[in-house]
Design a protein that fits this description.
This protein has one domain: Vaccinia Virus protein VP39 (Rossmann fold). The strands form three sheets. Strands 7-6-5-8-9-11-10 form a seven-stranded mixed β-sheet, covered by helices on one side. A two-stranded antiparallel ribbon has the order 1-2. Strands 3-4 form a two-stranded antiparallel sheet. The protein is an alpha/beta fold and 253 residues long. Helix 2 runs parallel beside helix 3. The chain is built from seven helices and eleven strands. A hairpin with a 5-residue loop joins strand 3 and strand 4.
């Protein structure tokens, strides 16, 4: 089933053609960033998407289908942390990305921006979130569509452990994974076990909220089994020069 013009997904309602989009953000021009294999269309997409993200984060709210405003913070990836995420995608020259935890869709937009800036977006983004259609009221899907990157995103409305087993069975592989799903110890550990089967050798997995004890302990247990190592942690700097409280952990095979 499709949402709007491009988003590939399972189990959701298609937006009616006359249904208004949720936030109606103004798009402003911004300096472009040229990367590997980019052409004029990539630069235009970069400008538009970067401006969309900046305006969306500045506004700080998402609107559900009932017209209710939801604050993005503290749940969503903040602007500075998202820029670090996009930079990681670009530096990895990733073509195919797996995301666990869609939420408001902000991290997905930053991942998409990284793909644009690397000039490699053929593999797109596969996003897993069992709560997107219920708890999140499809807000992430609507924002992705509004940002005009829906055609790059495949959405799986199921638990991450189930989705990861199926992706492994289908022999899917990804260059990079970003995880911001359940923060419960066992869920994080099971995500690690599933991800090692679908992230290619030498690929990168980025875990959000490494500063939270259950997340850190689960990742540490997984790394203790061998085969993967903690490459670095990311704590972004905010515009005022202070460090973000959010810590991301990057592990590599």
């Amino acid at each position: 089933m499709t949402l709007g013009d491009g988003l590939r997904m399972t189990g959701s309602r298609k937006r009616k053609s006359d249904e208004p989009l949720s936030s109606g953000l103004a798009i402003r021009a911004k300096a472009s960033h040229r990367g590997f294999g980019r052409d004029a269309s990539d630069v235009e997409i970069d400008d538009r998407l970067a401006s969309f993200i900046e305006n969306f984060c500045y506004r700080g709210v998402a609107i559900d289908e009932a017209g209710t405003a939801w604050s993005l913070w503290p749940t969503a990836v903040r602007y500075e942390d998202g820029k670090s995420l996009a930079a990681a995608v670009e530096s990895e020259a990733a073509e195919s990305i797996l995301e666990i935890g869609l939420g408001f869709g902000i991290s997905t937009l930053f991942l998409a921006l990284g793909l644009v800036r690397s000039g490699r977006r053929s593999g797109g983004i596969t996003a897993i979130d069992p709560h997107q259609l219920s708890r999140w009221r499809s807000m992430g899907l609507r924002i992705i569509e509004e940002a005009a990157v829906g055609e790059w995103v495949s959405f799986l409305s199921e638990r991450s452990d189930v989705a990861l087993r199926r992706l492994a069975k289908d022999r899917r592989t990804f260059d990079l994974a970003f995880v911001d799903g359940s923060h419960r110890y066992l869920d994080v550990f099971n995500d690690c076990l599933g991800l090692q089967k679908v992230v290619r050798s030498g690929g990168l997995i980025i875990f959000d909220d490494f500063d939270e004890t259950p997340v850190k302990e689960a990742i540490s247990r997984f790394l203790g089994q061998g085969g993967w190592r903690l490459e670095n942690t990311i704590r972004s700097e905010r515009a005022d020069g202070t460090a973000s409280r959010r810590v991301m952990a990057c592990i590599r095979a």
